[in-house]
């Protein structure tokens, strides 16, 4: 996965308060480093002292195609629902959704889990299908 370091999250950014209160409430003056992920509306935030990392997915507040924002905003509810089925422990662990803040265009804030993302497996199955292996 390609990432690009963007710097530190500004204290004045409305996301700073959300990350501080919901991700690192016990850390005094947390510092969040920001990386842009392969998708331009997905960012990784890593707190400097604890190394706790989260993923933020955003939507355009004025998107002319409301279906796009509805789809990504539904991801938070879908993760809550799936985890409610018991997929919140090893070996069937689904990431924990932390927050959704429509007022700033935050569709989903979720914990970051090291490893391959779901897109990796989709691409792998597509290539296997192309080779006649599926």
Can you walk through the features of this model?
The chain has 134 residues and is an alpha+beta fold. The protein has one domain (4-130). It is built from three helices and eight strands; from the N terminus they run βαβββαββββα. Strands 1-2-3-4-8-7 form a six-stranded antiparallel sheet, sandwiched between helices. Strands 5-6 form a two-stranded antiparallel sheet. A hairpin with a 5-residue loop joins strand 3 and strand 4 (53-58). It is globular, with a radius of gyration of 16 Å. The model has no long low-confidence stretch (mean pLDDT 88).
Question: In terms of topology, how is this protein built?
Answer:
Blueprint: E1 4-8, H1 14-22, E2 32-36, E3 42-47, E4 53-58, H2 66-84, E5 88-89, E6 92-93, E7 97-101, E8 106-111, H3 118-130
Antiparallel strand pairs: 1-2, 2-3, 3-4, 4-8, 5-6, 7-8
* Separation, N- and C-terminal Cα atoms: 25 Å
Strand content: 25-35%
Average pLDDT over all residues:
88
Number of domains: 1
Strand neighbour order, sheet with most strands:
1-2-3-4-8-7
The number of E-state strands comes to 8
If you compute it from the alpha carbons, what radius of gyration comes out, rounded to the nearest whole angstrom? 16 Å
Q: Kindly name the structural category.
A: alpha+beta
Give the biggest beta sheet: 6 strands, antiparallel
Overall morphology: globular
Percent in helix: 25-40%
Count helical runs: 3
The stretches of 5 or more residues where confidence is low (pLDDT under 50) are none
Order of helices and strands: EHEEEHEEEEH
């Amino acid at each position: 996965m390609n990432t690009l370091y963007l710097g530190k999250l500004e204290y004045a950014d409305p996301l700073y308060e959300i990350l501080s209160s919901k991700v690192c409430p016990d850390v005094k003056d947390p510092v969040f480093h920001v990386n842009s992920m392969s998708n331009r509306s997905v960012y990784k935030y890593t707190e400097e002292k604890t190394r706790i990392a989260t993923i933020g997915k955003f939507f355009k507040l004025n998107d002319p195609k409301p279906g796009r924002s509805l789809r990504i905003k539904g991801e938070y509810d879908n993760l809550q629902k799936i985890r409610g089925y018991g997929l919140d422990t090893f070996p069937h662990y689904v990431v924990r959704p932390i927050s959704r803040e429509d007022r700033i265009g935050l569709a989903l804030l979720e914990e970051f889990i090291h490893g391959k993302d779901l897109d990796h497996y989709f691409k792998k199955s597509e290539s296997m299908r192309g080779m006649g292996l599926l």
